Request: fold
Amino acid sequence: MIAQSYHQTYNLPVGIARCGNVYGGGDLNWTRIVPGTVKALYHKQQPLLRSDGKYIRDYIYVNDVVRLILHWLKGLIRRAFGGRASISVQNPA
Reply:
C-alpha cells in the first residue's frame, strides 16, 4: 500500500515482489522444509514428511531471485529516469 501511494502521489514507477518458497545458503531456520531436509540427510536421519503429497509447491533458489530483482530494477530505473540503467550488487545505482 505504501508503494502504491508513492506511485500515485509522485508518479514513480513501483514494483512489488512477493517471493515465496525461497531457499538457499545461509538459511538456518531448521523448521523450514529445505534446511530441515538437508540437515536430516546430513545426519543420516529420515527427513520429516509434512503432508501426504497432495499439495505441490514450487521453490526458487535465492540467487535466482536476486538476479530477477536486479533485472527488474533496471527496467524500473529506465522508466523513472529514461534511457539507460546500471545496477549491480557491487555498484548499486
The radius of gyration is 19 Å.
